[in-house]
Amino acid sequence: TALHDYAERVKSGAAPGNHAVVVGLLSASLSVACLDAVVGELYAFSSSWVGAAMRLGLVDHRGAQALLHQARPVIATTALEVNDRDASRISSCTPFLDVMAMRHEQAELRLFAS
Known about the structure:
With 114 residues, the chain is mostly helical.
């Protein structure tokens, strides 16, 4: 299978392991429609951020559910906008997240072990 082949390439050092690639390969191997896979990944991303907000005490469980509910139209619109894009145009730009991750590693007090 493509997933097994990719795992072998990662083990041999021929390919870097990448979460997005694995999710894409797994979704394809399970015949998950592309749009459904995109929506699922966007929801999982949103859910992880809301979970972090809960752990930080910024929202409670009800507030977290309200945030996820409010995010549904944005998730749907975004999924529809990106669903048919050429994969060669996909990129990421998260400088704020990168800086915060670097600061977190050196922080005297950390909320999450890493």
